[in-house]
Amino acid sequence: MKMIDGIKFVAFDLDGTLLDSVPDLADAVNKTLQALGRPEVTIAQMTTWIGNGAEIMLGRALSRSIEVDPDLDPALHREARQLFDRFYDEGGHRQSALYPGVKDTLDALREAGIPMAIVTNKPAQFLPHLLAQHGIAEYFVDVIGGDTFPLKKPDPYALHWLMEKHCLAASELLMVGDSRNDILAAKAAACYVVGLTYGYNYGQPISASDPDIVLDHFSQLAEVVKLGR
Protein backbone atom coordinates (compact mmCIF):
# COMPACT_ATOMS: atom_id res chain seq x y z
CA MET A 1 0.00 0.00 0.00
CA LYS A 2 1.32 3.42 -0.97
CA MET A 3 1.83 5.77 1.97
CA ILE A 4 1.99 9.57 2.17
CA ASP A 5 4.45 11.30 4.47
CA GLY A 6 3.81 14.51 6.36
CA ILE A 7 0.00 14.69 6.38
CA LYS A 8 -1.12 17.11 9.09
CA PHE A 9 -4.80 17.58 8.17
CA VAL A 10 -7.45 15.46 6.42
CA ALA A 11 -10.55 16.80 4.64
CA PHE A 12 -13.41 14.40 3.89
CA ASP A 13 -16.28 14.43 1.48
CA LEU A 14 -19.50 13.17 3.09
CA ASP A 15 -22.00 11.44 0.78
CA GLY A 16 -20.48 8.32 -0.73
CA THR A 17 -17.34 8.71 1.40
CA LEU A 18 -18.30 8.62 5.07
CA LEU A 19 -22.04 8.09 4.67
CA ASP A 20 -24.22 6.01 2.38
CA SER A 21 -26.98 8.61 2.06
CA VAL A 22 -28.57 7.70 -1.26
CA PRO A 23 -31.66 5.97 0.25
CA ASP A 24 -32.71 9.13 2.11
CA LEU A 25 -31.86 11.39 -0.83
CA ALA A 26 -33.85 9.20 -3.22
CA ASP A 27 -36.81 9.12 -0.82
CA ALA A 28 -36.88 12.92 -0.55
CA VAL A 29 -36.46 13.36 -4.30
CA ASN A 30 -39.29 10.93 -5.05
CA LYS A 31 -41.62 12.68 -2.58
CA THR A 32 -40.72 15.93 -4.35
CA LEU A 33 -41.44 14.44 -7.77
CA GLN A 34 -44.74 12.99 -6.52
CA ALA A 35 -45.79 16.41 -5.20
CA LEU A 36 -45.01 17.90 -8.61
CA GLY A 37 -46.89 15.17 -10.49
CA ARG A 38 -43.69 13.77 -11.97
CA PRO A 39 -42.65 10.10 -12.27
CA GLU A 40 -40.37 8.68 -9.58
CA VAL A 41 -36.72 7.76 -10.09
CA THR A 42 -34.78 4.69 -9.01
CA ILE A 43 -31.98 4.31 -6.48
CA ALA A 44 -29.66 3.35 -9.35
CA GLN A 45 -30.44 6.61 -11.16
CA MET A 46 -30.00 8.67 -8.01
CA THR A 47 -26.59 7.13 -7.36
CA THR A 48 -25.31 8.63 -10.62
CA TRP A 49 -26.81 12.09 -9.96
CA ILE A 50 -25.28 12.86 -6.54
CA GLY A 51 -22.15 14.95 -6.02
CA ASN A 52 -22.74 18.46 -7.35
CA GLY A 53 -25.11 19.72 -4.65
CA ALA A 54 -28.88 19.71 -4.24
CA GLU A 55 -29.66 22.15 -7.07
CA ILE A 56 -27.98 20.09 -9.77
CA MET A 57 -29.20 16.79 -8.30
CA LEU A 58 -32.79 18.04 -8.50
CA GLY A 59 -32.22 19.41 -11.99
CA ARG A 60 -31.06 15.95 -13.05
CA ALA A 61 -34.06 14.29 -11.39
CA LEU A 62 -36.46 16.68 -13.10
CA SER A 63 -34.65 16.12 -16.41
CA ARG A 64 -34.32 12.35 -15.76
CA SER A 65 -30.75 12.62 -17.01
CA ILE A 66 -27.28 13.46 -15.72
CA GLU A 67 -27.45 16.37 -18.19
CA VAL A 68 -29.83 19.00 -16.83
CA ASP A 69 -32.39 20.09 -19.45
CA PRO A 70 -31.45 23.67 -20.43
CA ASP A 71 -35.16 24.38 -20.95
CA LEU A 72 -36.10 23.32 -17.41
CA ASP A 73 -38.51 25.88 -15.92
CA PRO A 74 -36.62 27.87 -13.24
CA ALA A 75 -39.81 28.30 -11.21
CA LEU A 76 -40.36 24.53 -11.21
CA HIS A 77 -36.73 24.03 -10.17
CA ARG A 78 -37.14 26.47 -7.26
CA GLU A 79 -40.36 24.78 -6.13
CA ALA A 80 -38.63 21.40 -6.28
CA ARG A 81 -35.79 22.67 -4.10
CA GLN A 82 -38.21 23.98 -1.46
CA LEU A 83 -40.09 20.67 -1.42
CA PHE A 84 -36.90 18.62 -1.33
CA ASP A 85 -35.46 20.57 1.60
CA ARG A 86 -38.65 19.97 3.58
CA PHE A 87 -38.92 16.26 2.75
CA TYR A 88 -35.21 15.59 3.33
CA ASP A 89 -35.36 17.29 6.71
CA GLU A 90 -38.61 15.54 7.70
CA GLY A 91 -37.14 12.17 6.73
CA GLY A 92 -34.65 12.46 9.56
CA HIS A 93 -31.85 10.73 7.60
CA ARG A 94 -32.95 7.45 9.15
CA GLN A 95 -32.03 5.29 6.15
CA SER A 96 -28.46 6.62 5.86
CA ALA A 97 -25.55 4.73 7.43
CA LEU A 98 -21.82 5.13 7.95
CA TYR A 99 -19.68 2.94 5.74
CA PRO A 100 -17.72 0.13 7.44
CA GLY A 101 -14.59 1.27 9.24
CA VAL A 102 -15.45 4.97 9.25
CA LYS A 103 -15.78 5.54 12.98
CA ASP A 104 -12.76 3.43 13.97
CA THR A 105 -10.58 5.20 11.42
CA LEU A 106 -11.77 8.65 12.49
CA ASP A 107 -10.96 7.63 16.06
CA ALA A 108 -7.46 6.58 15.04
CA LEU A 109 -6.84 9.83 13.16
CA ARG A 110 -8.02 11.88 16.12
CA GLU A 111 -5.87 9.88 18.54
CA ALA A 112 -2.89 10.53 16.25
CA GLY A 113 -3.52 14.27 16.60
CA ILE A 114 -4.60 14.85 13.01
CA PRO A 115 -7.37 17.48 12.72
CA MET A 116 -10.15 16.80 10.25
CA ALA A 117 -12.81 18.70 8.29
CA ILE A 118 -15.88 17.98 6.17
CA VAL A 119 -15.85 19.48 2.66
CA THR A 120 -19.09 18.48 0.95
CA ASN A 121 -21.37 19.90 -1.71
CA LYS A 122 -24.41 18.99 0.43
CA PRO A 123 -26.27 22.11 1.66
CA ALA A 124 -24.82 23.27 4.98
CA GLN A 125 -28.21 23.41 6.70
CA PHE A 126 -28.40 19.59 6.85
CA LEU A 127 -24.91 18.95 8.17
CA PRO A 128 -25.11 19.56 11.95
CA HIS A 129 -28.05 17.18 12.46
CA LEU A 130 -26.70 14.59 10.04
CA LEU A 131 -23.24 14.46 11.63
CA ALA A 132 -24.67 14.42 15.17
CA GLN A 133 -27.18 11.70 14.34
CA HIS A 134 -24.43 9.41 13.11
CA GLY A 135 -22.15 10.22 16.03
CA ILE A 136 -19.30 11.84 14.11
CA ALA A 137 -19.82 15.58 14.65
CA GLU A 138 -17.10 15.83 17.30
CA TYR A 139 -14.35 14.65 14.94
CA PHE A 140 -14.36 17.74 12.72
CA VAL A 141 -12.85 21.15 13.43
CA ASP A 142 -14.51 22.62 10.32
CA VAL A 143 -17.68 21.64 8.47
CA ILE A 144 -18.01 23.17 5.01
CA GLY A 145 -21.15 22.70 2.92
CA GLY A 146 -21.81 23.37 -0.72
CA ASP A 147 -23.24 26.81 0.05
CA THR A 148 -20.82 27.82 2.84
CA PHE A 149 -18.60 29.67 0.36
CA PRO A 150 -19.30 31.28 -3.03
CA LEU A 151 -17.68 28.32 -4.82
CA LYS A 152 -17.95 24.57 -4.23
CA LYS A 153 -16.07 21.51 -5.45
CA PRO A 154 -14.59 20.96 -8.01
CA ASP A 155 -13.37 24.48 -7.25
CA PRO A 156 -10.53 24.36 -4.67
CA TYR A 157 -11.86 27.36 -2.70
CA ALA A 158 -12.67 25.39 0.47
CA LEU A 159 -9.33 23.57 0.44
CA HIS A 160 -7.43 26.83 0.02
CA TRP A 161 -9.47 28.25 2.92
CA LEU A 162 -8.49 25.30 5.14
CA MET A 163 -4.82 25.68 4.22
CA GLU A 164 -4.88 29.37 5.06
CA LYS A 165 -6.82 28.93 8.31
CA HIS A 166 -4.67 26.08 9.62
CA CYS A 167 -1.33 27.32 8.18
CA LEU A 168 -0.89 24.23 6.02
CA ALA A 169 1.31 23.65 3.02
CA ALA A 170 -0.54 21.91 0.18
CA SER A 171 1.61 18.80 0.79
CA GLU A 172 0.29 18.61 4.38
CA LEU A 173 -3.39 18.41 3.39
CA LEU A 174 -5.10 15.20 2.27
CA MET A 175 -8.53 15.19 0.59
CA VAL A 176 -10.54 11.95 0.76
CA GLY A 177 -13.55 11.46 -1.49
CA ASP A 178 -15.48 9.25 -3.87
CA SER A 179 -16.16 11.68 -6.72
CA ARG A 180 -14.24 13.30 -9.54
CA ASN A 181 -15.23 16.63 -7.94
CA ASP A 182 -13.08 15.70 -4.93
CA ILE A 183 -10.16 14.70 -7.15
CA LEU A 184 -10.39 17.85 -9.29
CA ALA A 185 -10.62 20.14 -6.25
CA ALA A 186 -7.59 18.51 -4.63
CA LYS A 187 -5.52 18.64 -7.81
CA ALA A 188 -6.40 22.31 -8.26
CA ALA A 189 -5.27 22.95 -4.67
CA ALA A 190 -2.09 20.89 -5.27
CA CYS A 191 -2.82 18.68 -2.24
CA TYR A 192 -2.86 14.90 -2.01
CA VAL A 193 -6.08 13.04 -2.71
CA VAL A 194 -7.43 9.55 -1.99
CA GLY A 195 -10.26 8.20 -4.14
CA LEU A 196 -12.65 5.59 -2.71
CA THR A 197 -14.08 2.97 -5.06
CA TYR A 198 -17.32 2.24 -3.18
CA GLY A 199 -18.98 5.66 -3.54
CA TYR A 200 -21.15 7.23 -6.22
CA ASN A 201 -19.07 9.15 -8.82
CA TYR A 202 -21.78 9.22 -11.50
CA GLY A 203 -21.37 5.49 -12.13
CA GLN A 204 -17.76 5.90 -13.30
CA PRO A 205 -14.66 4.28 -11.73
CA ILE A 206 -12.83 6.72 -9.46
CA SER A 207 -9.50 5.56 -10.87
CA ALA A 208 -10.37 7.34 -14.13
CA SER A 209 -9.95 10.67 -12.31
CA ASP A 210 -6.37 9.72 -11.34
CA PRO A 211 -6.26 10.25 -7.56
CA ASP A 212 -2.91 9.76 -5.85
CA ILE A 213 -4.19 6.60 -4.18
CA VAL A 214 -7.29 4.44 -4.77
CA LEU A 215 -8.78 2.56 -1.79
CA ASP A 216 -11.53 -0.05 -1.67
CA HIS A 217 -12.14 0.26 2.09
CA PHE A 218 -12.19 3.31 4.33
CA SER A 219 -10.12 1.61 7.02
CA GLN A 220 -7.15 1.43 4.62
CA LEU A 221 -6.76 5.17 5.12
CA ALA A 222 -4.93 4.54 8.40
CA GLU A 223 -2.17 2.82 6.44
CA VAL A 224 -1.94 5.63 3.90
CA VAL A 225 -1.24 8.29 6.53
CA LYS A 226 0.93 5.82 8.47
CA LEU A 227 -0.97 5.86 11.75
CA GLY A 228 0.71 3.82 14.44
CA ARG A 229 4.07 3.80 12.68
UniProtKB/TrEMBL annotation:
Catalysed reactions, semicolon-separated: 2-phosphoglycolate + H2O = glycolate + phosphate
Keywords: Carbohydrate metabolism, Hydrolase, Magnesium, Metal-binding
Pathway entry: Organic acid metabolism; glycolate biosynthesis; glycolate from 2-phosphoglycolate: step 1/1
Enzyme category, top tier: hydrolase
Family annotation (SUPFAM superfamilies): HAD-like
Binding of Mg(2+), residues: 13, 15, 178
E.C. number(s) listed in UniProt: 3.1.3.18
Segments passing through the bilayer: none
Cofactor(s) needed by this chain: Mg(2+)
Gene3D superfamilies in the record: HAD superfamily/HAD-like (3.40.50.1000), Putative phosphatase, domain 2 (1.10.150.240)
UniProt GO molecular function: phosphoglycolate phosphatase activity
Pfam families with a match to the protein in the record: HAD_2 (PF13419)
Active site per the UniProt annotation: 13 (nucleophile)
Protein family per UniProt: Belongs to the HAD-like hydrolase superfamily. CbbY/CbbZ/Gph/YieH family.
Function: Specifically catalyzes the dephosphorylation of 2-phosphoglycolate. Is involved in the dissimilation of the intracellular 2-phosphoglycolate formed during the DNA repair of 3'-phosphoglycolate ends, a major class of DNA lesions induced by oxidative stress.
Full protein name: Phosphoglycolate phosphatase
Source organism: Photobacterium atrarenae
